[in-house]
Amino acid sequence: MKKSLLTLLFLYSIASFSFAQYAEIGFSGGTSLYSGDLSPDEFGVYFEELNLAYGLFGRFNISKPFSLRIGITQGKLTGDDSNVPERQTIRGLNFRTIVTDIALTGEINLFRLGNENSLQVAPYLTGGIAVYYYNPQTEIDGDFIDLQPIGTEGQGLPGYEEPYRLAQAAVPMGLGLKFIFKNRVTLGFEFVGRKLFTDFLDDVSGQEINYLDILEGNGELAARLSNPLITNPDDADVVYQRGGKFNDWYYFGMVTLSFNLGDMGSFGNKGYGCPTNF
């Protein structure tokens, strides 16, 4: 009896808490960019390869300081040694991929300035978990070819890693600034990076590989894409590393626009409302 009563009280408290909050639906648009082995340097944020990104999200305002958000974002990522002239003569690699990212993140509003009845400004920090899908391709002879099945770094061969997964987890982290108009419409600006657990976003890692292993095990195309500058293995260094030791990152710099859907406990009753405790 005591256990049942505690369970009911717990469920009631959760329900009462959620009914006091409000939800938003929003859209985002901006840029995506990549940082990795095909960046101008080994690690950092570089703006030579800006591409378009867009998304859709829902935000659940739990309290004044904290919001929970779930969203899907898609963007293009690219990298090309031709943007770094000295690297074009020693490696000559390029890649592109469309990344589709589903993230569950929390937003911590650091403080609020302004009036709830007019305009509030709130800087925030954000972080959480994400899953993403990508499929790196490279351009060769005017065509784009999927890289993961080819095994350009000996994937699948004895002594080498297994083929990398195209769906993986990431850790989003970043910051933003919200402009909240009468608790009804929110305009935001944010920059959020993804910490990855792979170095193969661009199909290039820092492991040591042997050109002859790839040629014999994965074929001529895999060897050519592994090191386009080797035309005669007898006259070249066939053991090499294509990239560095750091994992890759990708980033979204977005403008967001969201709309208050009303009290989460009374959709359709209060309409376009705004709660008194937010």
Structural class by helix and strand composition: mainly beta
Mean pLDDT figure: 86
Share of residues in helices: 10-25%
> In the CATH hierarchy, what is the architecture at level 2?
Beta Barrel
Total number of helical segments?
Answer: 4
Largest sheet: 8 strands, antiparallel, barrel
Question: What would you say this structure looks like, in words?
Answer:
With 278 residues, this protein is mostly beta strands. It starts with a helix and ends in a 15-residue tail after the last strand. The protein has helices spanning 2-19, 85-88, 211-218, 220-226; strands at residues 22-35, 51-61, 66-80, 94-109, 113-114, 119-133, 137-140, 143-146, 167-181, 185-196, 208-210, 239-241, 249-263. The protein is elongated, with a radius of gyration of 24 Å. β5 (113-114) and β6 (119-133) form a beta hairpin. The chain has a single domain (18-263), classed as Porin (Beta Barrel), CATH 2.40.160.
Question: Summed up, what is this model?
Answer:
The protein is mainly β and 278 residues long. It has four helices and 13 strands.
Notable traits:
278 residues, mainly beta, Porin, elongated, two-stranded antiparallel sheet
